[in-house]
What we know:
The structure is a single chain. By secondary structure, the protein is mainly alpha-helical. The chain has helices at 3-25, 30-44, 50-62, 67-108, 116-140, 144-159, 165-180, 198-222, 225-238, 247-255, 263-273, 283-315, 319-323, 326-355, 359-373, 379-393. The protein has one domain (115-393). It contains 16 helices and no strands. The longest helix is centred in the first third of the chain and has 42 residues, at 67-108. It is globular and about 65 Å long. 50% of the residues are buried. Its main location: membrane.
Amino acid sequence: MNSTKQNRIRLLIEIFLVSTRLGLTSFGGPTAHLGYFYEEYVRRRKWVDEKSYADLVALCQFLPGPSSSQVGIGIGILRAGIIGGITSFIGFTFPSVVALIALALVMTGLDVGNAGWIHGLKIVAVAIVAHAIIGMAKSLTPDLKRKAIAILAMLVTLLWQTAFSQVGVILIAAFIGYLLLKQEDDGGVVKSYFPVSKQVGGICLLLFFSLLVALPLLKEATGLYWVAMFDSFYRTGSFVFGGGHVVLPLLENEFVPTGWINEEAFLAGYGVTQAVPGPLFTFAAYLGTVMNGWQGGVVATVAIFLPAFLLVIGALPFWDQLRNHPKITGAVMGVNAAVIGILIAALYSPIWMSSILEVKDFALVVILFSMLAYWKLPPWIVVVIGAFIGLVLL
């Protein structure tokens, strides 16, 4: 084996070990993950400089999908090409996927329907989603136009509950944002560099859109369960803007009304997901396992993250053109505002309606919310407290 190949293998092993350590310790959601990445990749290891990191974060905030995972993929690409991106993704995602598959296997063997600790986890979900909405709304709906988009999105999502409601709201909000919103001028054209050719980027974008069209057609043509499952997770991963919490209403709309998973198991799993490090998108691993064992967990994970992977590689060589187009940024601003409305609708139904049944439930959600918002406790601690109180008192 020549020295160049040995060096590349060592580099990939290093990327895997560093990203896995981050996957084991990165609690707190995507914003916290970006802070961990900055400390590790920019300040400590100096794998990327501050400008490249800022450019990468800006791109991943612009794209649909799990922004922190996409930043990790991008850093791996900058370090060791596309194979480096895959390695970084696997390292960061692997710990939480394994943990959630294991938890799902344990929980499916229990009677979770009437367990007090499960009800406690459902109340935790209320507190966490409410806290996320308040934090996100400050940056995503700062003016009256975007507040109006959020309110309209909430109303449409609540009153028009179909399989296409969230996707329809996102597309309409993008069009409104394209017409009415624009990014403030920050002083000129921004240029950046990423080591992906336009040819490779174009192939990835073509594959992304092709799968988005082909999977539903293949599902209808074959009627195969696994194709239908892959399609649902892939489509969800393709339309998540604004952070990992947005995956909740989209996945709930895909799987609970169809009977693939019951509401109690769904919300309990969302609560459990807050207790593990890594990206919130790994909630898909839990759902897939509940529906179809560990094989389902693996398929669900691949399907929900595949759009994010294709988009970040596909957009890298075209990022300068996208970020300097005010109409495109306006469309993204409109989508981000609609995300707030979709989340508020999800907070009411199904989360609040199925979780807050008595006065003591409301009292507990106030306590848990205060722990997050005012005492600044890590989410995993709040999850453990909520489950324990549910076990003892509910």
